[in-house]
Amino acid sequence: MKKKYDLDLIRKSIDNLSKDIFKNCNIKRCNQWSNPCGCCTKGDYPVSYLESLEIKDFLEKNPLTLQLVKNNIKENKKCYFYNSKDKICSIKNLRPIVCRFVSLRIFRHGEKLMGCSPYELCSGKKSTILSFEEKDTTVLKNNYTYIYHHPQNDIFYLDFKKLDFLKEYYQDNFINLSDIIKKTF
User: Fold this and answer.
1) Which of 185, 178, 176, 173 is nearest to 49 (CA)?
2) What pLDDT score was predicted for residue 32?
3) Considering the domain boundaries, does residue 2 fall inside one?
4) Residue 85, C-beta contacts closer than 8 angstroms, at least 6 positions apart
5) For 112-131, what is each residue's pLDDT tens digit?
6) Among 1, 4, 79, 101, which is 20 to 30 Å from 169 by CA?
């Protein structure tokens, strides 16, 4: 398969956008890899084919991380890569694109817009997704940054479907994280 996009550039771009949001929002936001009860424990996320190759290669070259993953699977943990001892993602630098933007993403559900609430960190016990209407937002001139005018504080969200550097990424084939693990054992 011919490489169509640059994962390092995508990671760097998303991380920079995230830093801008964290800096401008003045609200503590989930950083996707340090909340052991958050979205990263909610399921088996899809990753692009290129991401899957990188993660598989990393696991094959890092037996300690592979053992952590095996232990997490045995203990029925939802996130295979979360190191509860050090409270960090064991593949932080390679963590999937979806893990980098999940709490910053705005998405549509019918007529509503939705996004993660910075006011309640996910606990796994109830939804912390905010639902709001487009009339309650401002879209910045860049056309992919939404500001939801929440009664407590404005909340910045990104529409990742509109980011040019992700267009080719979204055209790749996707595979579930669990399938990568199964192929590595």
Assistant:
1) 173
2) 58
3) no
4) none
5) 999 988 887 666 666 788 89
6) 79
Closest CA to 32 of 116, 107, 113, 133: 116
Q: What is the DSSP letter of 161?
A: G
Residues 80 and 177: beta-carbon distance below 8 Å: yes
**CB-based burial of residue 101 (10 Å sphere; 0-12 exposed, 13-18 middle, 19+ buried)?**
buried
Flag whether 87 is in a domain. yes
Range of the domain at 59: 7-184
Structurally, the chain folds into a number of domains equal to: 1
Per-residue pLDDT reduced to its tens digit, 53-106 = 899 999 999 999 999 988 988 888 778 888 888 878 888 888 888 888 777 889
In a domain, residue 74? The reply is yes
